[in-house]
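fyi for ur records
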Amino acid sequence: MKIWICVLLMLGLMVGEVRAEMPADLAADGQAALARGAAWLAAQQQADGHWGSPETPALTALAMWALHRANPVEYQDAIARAMVYVLTSVHEDGSIWRAPSMERRGGGLANYNTAVCMSALHALGRPELVPVIQKARTYLAKMQYLDDGIYRGGMGYDAETGRAYADLSNSYMAYEAMRLTQDVEDLRAAGDPKADLDWGAVQEFLAQVQNLPGVNTNSYVSDDADSRGGFAYTPGAGAANTNAEGKVTLRSYGSMTYAGLLALIYAQVDETDVRVQAAKDWAERHWSLDENPGMGQEGLYYFFNVLTKSLKAAGDATLTLPDGRTVVWREEVARKLVALQKPDGHWVNDNNRWWEAEPNLVTSYVLLSLASALTPQ
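which gave:
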């Protein structure tokens, strides 16, 4: 069985296939956009080290991660201040979040914040952060929903809500965090129990949100050929369709399909598996960078971010569209992101769905996406 490239990279092995370099003019434009964006983002940091909402440390962690990817030397002071802010959000049980000033659904979004923060802290490569990351892994592993039912294997915003719930967005972020940080398990002290997810249960959850008859056996799976292979937000809900007979089915859309593909990779599902092939086929049939396919401008930059991570992890340099056109996705993503940059260096979405009118969040998404697109496989 061919091992997935993302797993090879995480294990520190070499990938033999070499990708063609990006055209020099595009690479230069991309690097210039990256530099302008990083400078803008660094200038927005608050005195105590945070960006965006002080109650959501994941926003600060994403900005810190983005500056580290863009230029860790130039922005080392900003990164250090952000790191301290994130660390002040760590709880005794290993979770990383802050109590909201007002009651809201999902509470402190503990799973989301912990997953993003531990991934960003790990990216810094600082040995002194290993115990923090280990405790965060222990916490996050305990938050996986493992009771029987359609949510088994998934993750929600907060396990303390008193109701069964999981969605693909929170789940893929948790899966990513656990895979990206798995090397710290080898550094645990003798007798310290290791932490991991139930990856078999992860595959069970992914089956509940993929529109793939035979894999998803629920009544809400779509039998529409256009939806086949794509992923939805949460089992039986989220963005849904109602057909002429009144049957409610899952609606596949772009950001969740790439999140689902990435989650399958993290769950080490073979690339020849029908689930993976169907997700890739949906992505090729709905290729667009002008919108989040199926959602228009909603979540557009989240879409760019997860698309870039997913295709990079899959290891495919090109996509083949139904009309026969070959897409070199790294180049198309770089061109699109450069074109969308504002004159002062930031990016923002006019559509505020999922906080995307927040320029600090969106600029962080783009810097991570652009840095990934500009880096060869």
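The longest strand covers residues 240-242. thats all i got for now
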